[in-house]
Amino acid sequence: MKTRRVVGLVAGVSMMLLGPHLMAQVPQIEVVLDGASPGPLFDGIGAVSAGASSRLLIDYPEPYRSQILDYLFKPDYGASLQHLKVEIGGDVNSTDGSEPSHMRSRFDQDFTRGYEWWLMSEAHQRNPKIVLDTLAWGAPGWVGGGNFYSEDMANYVAKFIEGARKTWGLDIAYTGIWNEKHFENPEYVKTLRRVLDEHHLDTRIVCCDEYPSHGADQWGFLGAMDQDAVLRSAIAVLSVHYPRMDGRLTTPAAALEFRKPLWSSEDQPQSSASNILSRDWQIGGRSLAQLYNDNYLRGGFTATEIWSPITSYYDILAAPNSGLMYANTPWSGHYDVQGAIWATAHTTQFAQPGWRYLARSCGQLNEKGDYVTFKSPNGSDWSVVLQTIDAKDPQSVHFVVTGGLSAATVHVWETNSRRTFEHVADIPVHDGGFTYTFDPDSLYSLTTTTGQGKGRAEPPPSHPFPFPYYENFENTPLHRSPRFLSDQDGAFEVLPCTGRPGKCLEQLITDRPIPWGPLPDPWTLAGDEKWTDYRIAADVRIEGGGSAMVIGRIDSADVFRDGAARLPSGYTFRIHSDGTWELLTSAYGKVTRTLAQGQTAPATGQWHRLQLAFSGSRIEATLDDQKLATVTDTSHTNGMIGIGSEWNRAQFDNLAVTPTGQ
After folding, report:
1. In sequence order, what DSSP letters do the residues of 361-428 get, joined into one string?
2. 198-249 per-position pLDDT tens digit
3. 569, 641 in Cβ contact below 8 A?
4. Is residue 122 among the annotated active site residues?
5. Which of 99, 116, 266, 506 is catalytic?
């Protein structure tokens, strides 16, 4: 540990090394830490596991999976997240895939599907005080006869919360309405409150998680609250997404008048449509250092939730690199602890939900930068989080400690391009104050508390997706998803094979869900985007009408690039139940082209072997060892693989990816 010397009231190696002449040029300001100026409660910092953003995490082997979870949730170790919001899955694409539904019919209930229950449980085991939150992105088609704002949907949410309690022993404190949908149905909010009460659930409602797009007012729900006392009572927390998206952060006065907590309930380190978070301090960490303080100072937000806790989805999907950490190669065990983890730790390891902001002890520094101060609820401990990201020169600050705050030794932690979450100084308080000089482009925490820590676990090296690749699904438990396959719409689970022994992968969803955004056909993804020449093959069986397909050289699967696209950007070989088949090339923003097509015997209720082979620009489609088409096309030169269907039941077995010619 590197410790800065203290001389009188002036501390800091950086100031001492400046010399008498330069020291005079370091401006000094005074900050009063006044324990008698209580502000609003601090509600915490958390993350949003949604949009299939955590899909690959559960596939990580131990001990690396536990190491990742420790960096996210273990107190005084890494990000020490205080909130975890999860998606209430609906078997429908919600950004980077579809998350499983707990009720695929009115009479179906399974509170073990998917990975969000597991993730909440792991987070709670590490931090029993973590605040759990939920929100729906879409819903199964049976809900409300296709109407999201219905009593069915309110019960769907209530059942999810009940399942968390009864099956997993988890209490979900908050739930929302519909992710990033413009507020238009106050009656549903009141219905949800009534249904939660009827289920004896004290889960509070967060409203309304709106996105600042298309000129819509993301605070539009405030007018309805003003006119409706029942609605006003039903809503416990006022929330919006990305309040700094346009570079401004303004909260309307009406939001403050309701005297309810204000949350930035989905946010990111960068306010840009790309949502790209650098893996190092320079972009990801620095921008979060500013965001957390700024959300309170200029927006009045007392909680911030980041999408997502971890980038655990394939890079070719939408919004790559969104997470506080990066872990999407479970076959290797590798992960990256990014700068965003330590920027978050500078708040979460020094203040807990239930602490209070000190109203007169938060503000701006003279030479760019700002600070917020927290006070513990049952004592005199305090912490200051101070950032100088845009400053160019050192700044000397004299702190006056008053209002019943502790005058114990002040511990200083620092992060910048030279240090990562280091304990750099211990400063005594003399005559009610102390002085410290802060370097530019840095993040600091000053505290009278102890116990903070920095995790030291190291990951193994990364290596590519296994090639050749073979999966017969025999080692996957029934009703679960196989390793590494990431469903992009619908639901693919392992079930007993039909018409042959053993286990198969089956696409289960036949009713189109209520979508959140784009609605591609059901398919599931795996592999390596660098693959070029290879053969993908799978046994397929179509039950009833519909189709089955194999897909190769998938070079993009970003559903937002072309919201009308039913297939990813790549080559698709598809056979229909009536025996018609087609070889297609798709690219976002372009019309899907048919490269070849034809007719064979009806394919329903029988097993067939579909193969798609690539060698340079040469593409071959084979059915049951009969070559149906050989074409030349250069639209896609490399990419991942997938299998899928339309909205029909289809089974898959013996999925294989091998070098061309084998």
Report:
1. G-EE-TTS-EEEEEE-TTSS-EEEEEE-TT--S-EEEEEEEETT---SPEEEEEESSS-SSEEEEEE-
2. 999 999 999 999 988 755 688 989 999 999 999 999 999 999 999 886 666 7
3. no
4. no
5. 266
CATH number 1.10.357.10 given to 469-658: no
Out of 99, 180, 471, 493, the active site residue is 180
Cα→Cα distances 659→54, 316, 621, Å: 30, 22, 15
Q: What is the pLDDT of residues 265-323, one digit of tens each?
A: 999 876 333 444 445 676 689 999 999 999 999 999 999 999 999 999 999 999 998 99
The single residue listed with the structure tokens 């690396």 is 64
Q: What is the pLDDT of residues 53-84, one digit of tens each?
A: 999 999 999 999 999 999 999 999 999 999 99
Domain boundaries, the chain: 6-34+356-420+433-447, 44-348, 469-658
- Which one, of 308, 322, 285, lies nearest residue 83 by Cα? 308
Active-site annotation holds for 506: no
Q: Which residues, 6 or more positions from 503, have their beta carbon under 8 angstroms from its beta carbon?
A: 472, 473, 474, 476, 478, 494, 495, 496, 497
- 588 strand-pairing partners: none
Q: State pTM to two decimals.
A: 0.94
What single-letter amino acid sits at 89?
A: G
CA 18 to chain centre: 44
CATH of domain 44-348: 3.20.20.80
What pLDDT is attached to residue 249? 72
Q: Does domain 6-34+356-420+433-447 have CATH number 3.40.50.1240?
A: no
